Amino acid sequence: MIQKTHSYDVVVVGGGSAGVAAAVGAANVGAKTLLIEKNPYFGGASTHSSVLTICGLFAQQEPTTQVVGGVGQTFLNHLARLGRYDGPFRNPGSGNVIVPLDGETTKFALDQLVLDAGVIPRLHTMVIGADVDGRQLRAIECFHHGGPFTVEGAAFVDASGEADLATFAGADVRYGGNEGRVQAGTLVMQFGGVAPDISIHRHQFTAAVWQAKRAGMDYLTKDRGMVVRLAGSNHVLALFADEDVNGLDSESLTQAEMSGRRQAWGYLEAFRQYVPGFKDAYLVQTGPAIGVRETRHVSGEYRLAGEEAIHGARFEDAIARGGWPVEIHEPGEAARYQQIKDKSYYEIPLRTLKVDRIDNLWCAGRIIDCDPIAFASARVMGTAFATGHAAGVAAALHASVGRVAAADVRRELIRQGAIL
Fold it and tell me: Regarding the domain with residue range 5-179+294-327+336-415, which homologous superfamily does it belong to in the CATH classification?
């Protein structure tokens, strides 16, 4: 089989919010940019795990303050044109500010976002290796059903969510946080047939799970989870089916997803029996994939500390703002929150995105260099739009002039509408 070689200025691996933002940011600099994604659509957790709420675009204070602009704002503009966005929503249960999504609208909006920027998209593509020469990542090996092929680049961004590219390139990575522990995975459930005139309160679902467990459904892992109505429908999104899963291991993922689907049918039965308005409910969808919150982290040039995030740290080389509270998920337990100082934001320095010892590789999204507490805030999709945007701009500047200064990255991000 003949192996083809393709060349680009910037190559981005992973098409979630971080990867899309990185690719668009790089293309807006003028770089010839390739965006590689293993799934048949962009969006990552939002579209492939049905996490239909974007967290982190807005801080939690009152009045609502936007902390992520740039590509994130352009995405919101696309949603608005498609009739699926008219402003942020404050969850009455948690008080947190989110942006509800519709899955199909999100897929289409991201397609348009990528194409409008001139990014070259490549779906259905896996990265399976890397060619490194000293401190330079020269090329990556990819695979699709037509066979392997090689992609050369002047600069790269790892937005894979699992630090796949950084691992193939021989960068220092670590699994999980302290003692290798990772946050719980959750299989998202979507229910239809819910009475539209019934108010939804979290305590109703907790009571229903308790009753179901007393009736023998002891495999239900969680009694306190997030429940929210989806915009434009009578569907309800629920995050209850927790699993202790290793997102790098196919055996662990298989077991978790099959167990999660069993739980979903159990939760459906429990809610039908014990929650007002759910008598005629049905299961619209699970996943498809379990929502994996954490696997690998990249060792960057600086590790953001939880204390810095909580106290609203500022940095001279800041390239993004994090406005989501620290949110920790242990299997079967309710999420634990700790607010950022004044419910405002902290800054993220460029150094946390720069992969140590590989001169032309940046990372973005939930793999940036954070300790477990900072990670529990910075991992969310809204913040990933911001770190991805910055990583893409940095990679494009490196591809153009062979070096990157934080001041130049900040200047270009501001030109592209980022909030710094």
Answer: FAD/NAD(P)-binding domain (3.50.50.60)
